[in-house]
Design a protein that fits this description.
Elements (H helix, E strand, L loop, with lengths): L1 H10 L13 H11 L18 H30 L6 H34 L6 H11 L7 H13 L15 H12 L1 H4 L6 E4 L5 E5 L4 H7 L6 H7 L4 H6 L11 H14 L4 H21 L12 H6 L3 H8 L10 H21 L6 H27 L6
Antiparallel strand pairs: 1-2
Helix pairs in contact: 3-4, 3-5, 3-12, 4-5, 4-6, 5-7, 6-7, 9-10, 12-15, 13-16, 15-17, 16-17
Length: 395
């Protein structure tokens, strides 16, 4: 790689202050730091020195996402092959899944990266590595049938409105990837939820199924009416706890496999990147609210209220959301006690939204965004309580 470094170093003079391409320095710096460590170091003053810089931080998150991304590619292809009556061997499923996933991923990075470069050039600062994670997250939280123009629109809204208008990475109080998905959810609900979204039929191919992922267990559970049992209906439809744990069912590309998500969670916790307090707090909140509904709801026309906590944890994007979205260090609170409160409330709100309002069966998205807004307030309240407990200074 020395030849590449020499070429980049030789061109640097054109991009630094005074060079003919100085306006494009953020783009040059991004290319340089992707391949090599930065040469900028602290020289004077008191600093915290740590080998974990922003780039390495984001790379670890990307590594944690790889199991869910790999399985998501396989599962999207598998569902399509099953629908078409085609071979479901691993290679065929993966190749079909790549045809579905890669365009979504490329459009996300191309359009989102465009906005990142525009704002970096306009403000005269470096391109932050934060988009590397947002660009990986967004394709994993959308259905495989989403039109590419909606991918471009959603990531544009997430980057521009969810982050850049507030000053860029580190200043945004909303998770950019979730902000983009929420925008699409409320703007184009027919493409993001319901039964029709999971089957894409190509008219040009004489109505051949182009992409398929069937009905989601959450959509089925939300439509069950008394006196039927949600577990009974899900079982009849072929959904078991084992099936939900491994993830071979319909859903957003990266959210179905709890097993792969837990692998990512283990890496985030082991490296200290993701807050285990937020994750555990969210699970406890979800279990608590589900138990409350199970015990106190009594006879109801909403059988969904009687579904057990383990089913709720396994279905939909609950686990993906609390592991990769709720733990975002920018939009989450900073204090340890605050993280417990933040996680607990996310779990409680996710179950309330999911069960009470069938129009939003995937409540974790709205729960995380709502608690993003209140994260600074939670930190403030916890900090003030700590200050009041201090012993007054003796004059």
């Amino acid at each position: 790689m020395k030849w590449l470094k020499d070429k980049l170093d030789a061109q640097e003079k054109h991009f630094v202050s005074g060079g003919k391409l100085e306006k494009l320095y953020p783009l040059f710096e991004a290319v340089h730091t992707i391949h090599f460590s930065t040469t900028a170091v602290t020289k004077i003053g008191a600093h915290i020195r740590d080998s974990l810089d922003t780039k390495r931080y984001m790379i670890i998150v990307v590594m944690a996402l790889l199991p869910t991304m790999g399985f998501g590619v396989y599962n999207a292809g598998l569902q399509t092959q099953l629908a078409g009556g085609l071979s479901t061997d691993t290679l065929s499923s993966v190749l079909q899944g790549l045809k579905i996933f890669l365009p979504i991923l490329l459009v996300t990075f191309a359009v989102g990266g465009f906005w990142e470069v525009i704002f970096a050039v306009f403000r005269g600062h470096e391109i932050n590595e934060g988009f590397l994670v947002s660009g990986m997250l967004f394709p994993l939280i959308v259905p495989p049938t989403i039109p590419l123009w909606q991918v471009a629109l959603g990531i544009s809204f997430g980057v521009v409105v969810g982050k850049e208008v507030f000053g860029g990475t580190g200043r945004n109080f909303l998770n950019p990837a979730l902000t983009g998905r929420a925008f699409l959810f409320f703007s184009y609900p027919a493409y993001m939820s319901g039964d029709a979204v999971w089957t894409l039929v190509s008219v040009a191919k004489d109505r051949v199924v182009d992409t398929f992922s069937g009905a989601t267990p959450l959509a089925i559970a939300a439509q069950v009416e008394a006196p039927n049992s949600v577990v009974g209906v899900l079982t009849e439809q072929g959904f078991s706890l084992s099936n939900l744990f491994w993830g071979t069912y319909a859903g957003s590309i990266g959210e179905t496999s709890v097993f792969c998500i837990l692998l990512g969670a283990a890496l985030l916790i082991a490296t200290g990147i993701g807050s285990w307090r937020v994750m555990v707090g969210s699970v406890l909140g979800g279990v608590l609210m589900t138990t409350v509904f199970n015990v106190f709801s009594g006879p109801t026309n909403l059988p969904f209220l009687h579904l057990g906590p383990l089913w709720h944890l396994m279905m939909g994007g609950f686990m993906f959301g609390i592991v990769f979205m709720a733990t975002d260090p920018v939009s989450a609170p900073d204090l340890k006690a605050s993280k417990w409160v933040y996680g607990l409330l996310i779990g409680i709100l996710a179950i309330i939204i999911r069960t009470i309002n069938p129009a939003y069966p995937e409540g974790v998205m709205l729960a995380i965004l709502l608690m993003n807004v209140f994260a600074p307030l939670i930190d403030h309240v916890v900090l003030q309580r700590k200050v009041k407990k201090r012993i007054p200074n003796v004059i």
